[in-house]
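Figure 2 data, in text form.
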Amino acid sequence: MEKPRVLIVDDQQAAREGLSEIVSAWGYQTRIAGDGMEAVEIATQFQPFAVISDILMPRLDGFGLLRRIHELLPETAVILLTGQGSVEDAVRAVKEEGAFYYFEKPINTRALSIVLQRAIEQMVTQRENTRLRRQLGEYGVFGKLVGDSQVMRQIYTVIEQVASSAVSVLITGDSGTGKEVVAQTIHQLSPRASRPFVAINCSAIPESLMESELFGHERGAFTGAIARREGCFELANTGTIFLDEIAEMPPMLQAKLLRVLEDRKVRRLGSPKEVPVDVRVLAATNKDPLEAVRRGELREDLLYRLNVIHIKLPPLRERREDIPLLAEFMIKELSNRHNRPARLIAPEVLELFTRHPWQGNVRELRNIIEHAVIVCDGQRIEKQHISAQMFEGLNVRNQDTITFPVGITLDEAERQLILRTLIKTNNNKTRAAELLKVSLKTLHNKLKTYREDNEE
């Protein structure tokens, strides 16, 4: 991995060389310059992540260099060094001209180390934001998220807005909509991007092991604890922890989690000591959080602590216009991964995809495309490459007709009729209610019942 580049500027040779040695010892790649003019020439080629510059210098002083760096390299942070006589000017440069920080001489090197690290993290984050915005404009892709629909662009905007902060975010949506991908993107765009990202699925861990998994344990804390073990919060220290399916966490542990979020300390099982942790918490659930609170599955106080920002992901059937773009990127990725020749998708297959109800959402689409990529020997995926089991009945039924087997219950027949009508109307519930000759309220109540049945 490339070392971050830092340019050090001072007209006193001993000062710039001494500071360069210190900064190099911290693990950075450094270059030095004797004044602002020389620094501009070097910066053009060196492309520093940060510039540390004295203010009083010949030819071009620190303020002039600050302005030139912002013109040439707007994402590069500039830290100013000042003597006692120019402190007011340095404060003005930070507040009005965008300097990242300033230090009075003699420099507190420990404080400089912390500030420099933060400056470079901010620069990397800004550069990644710029790259993702360009990628979104050109391809409709935002990190690992794919889609150019209005609803997805609104989600991208929220992700950008919250990424730079440390607030908790609750991500909701049906299974398979990409909640963990959203969490990874928030982490990737945050100042913590170079720090750990630890994901834990609360529904996949036995209740008896979950507390140890989250908070760790000491040797001998319970039968089988043969050594001390750090939990996920300690492993994610200075980074991000993603708690997936938070509503599946046992109530007792929800109370302990709330305490950790409030105190920013964890206590391992069997330990009398608390360990401070600096962790950003992202959480997700495929349930309606307010309904989960009503059912007693999620503590109300924990919900309010996690739900500072709420991102709700739509099911794939509500953003069908993104399916061609998703399919294109999945084919490219999966063909490269499996070393297969498929690169294109037949129009009739895309037409089938846009008709499918996608109960499994993006994950279901990915599984179907992966199957097709593997069995396809040519460059284009055709109908025969789609798994008959996965797409049962999709390519043999007419969208305007529905056939029921003898013996089907009235409730199930009604359910299939409602869902098929929604597919025909592209999920326009008002139009579907008109076709079914029921009230919109009745239709919403039916759909709510189906969602609850699926969750159970």
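Caption note: The two ends are 47 Å apart (CA to CA).
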